[in-house]
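Entry 14. Structure prediction run on the chain below.
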Amino acid sequence: MLAACLALALIPLPATPNVLLIVLDDAGYGDFGFTGHPTIRTPHLDRLATQSVRSPQFYVSSPA
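Output returned:
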């Protein structure tokens, strides 16, 4: 375990993380090319989706 921690400490990390969070309102699951829409073309979002981690399932809590 100690050897693994030391090995991870020697790996150079980028100066700044590349994080992009896209929050949308009223966008349906199938409204983008990468989710299978037959006529809407979203090439830039398609490229981002193939090169990144997507979280298509989430929970929302609304006030009572």
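The two ends are 47 Å apart (CA to CA).
Filed with the rest of this week's runs.
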